Amino acid sequence: MFDNFVVPNLQPAAPEIFLVVMASAILLIDLFIKDSRRTVTFALSVLTLLGCAVIQFLTWTPDITYTFSNMFVDDQMADVLKLFLYLAVVMVLFYSRAYVVDRSEMNKGEYYVLTLFATLGMMVMISANNFVTVYIGIELLSLSLYAMVAMNRASLAASEAAMKYFVLGALASGLLLYGMSMIYGATGSLEITAIAEVLRNGGANGNLLIFGLIFLIAGMAFKLGVVPFHMWIPDVYHGAPTSVTLLIGSAPKLAAFAIVMRLLVSGLFPLAAEWQNMLIIMAVLSMAIGNLAAIAQTNIKRMLAYSAISHMGFMLLGIVSGVVGSVDPVTGDIIRDARFALNAYSSAMFYVVSYVLMSLGTFGMILLMSRSGFEADTLDDFKGLNQRSPWFAAIMMMLMFSMAGIPFFIGFFAKFTVLMAVIAAGYIWFAIVAVLFSLIGAFYYLRVVKLMYFDAPQDETPIAADADMRLLISANGIAVALFGLFPQVIMTLCAFSLLRSLTP
Amino acid sequence: MSNHLLSLAIWLPIAAGVIVLLTGSDRNAPLARMLALVGALAGFLVTIPLWAAFDPAYVGMQFVEFSNWIPRFDINYHLGVDGISMLFVILNAFVTVIVVIAGWEVIGKKVAQYNAAFLIMSGLMNGIFASLDGVLFYVFFEASLIPMYLIIGVWGGPNRVYAAFKFFLYTLFGSLLFLLALIYLFVHSGTFSILDWHQLSIPLGAQIWIFLAFLIAFAVKVPMWPVHTWLPDAHVEAPTGGSIVLAAIALKLGAYGFIRFSLPIAPDASHQLSGLIIALSLIAVVYIGFVALVQADMKKLVAYSSIAHMGFVTLGFFMFSALGVEGALVQMISHGFVSGAMFFCIGVMYDRVHSRQIADYGGVVNTMPKFAALFMLFSMANAGLPATSGFVGEFMVILGAVKFNFWIAFAAATSLILGAAYSLWMYKRVIFGEVANPHVAELSDINKREFLILGALALCTLWMGLYPQPFTDVMHTSVNELINHVNTPKIQ
Question: How many CA atoms lie within 13 A of B304 on its CB side?
Answer without folding.
Answer: 21
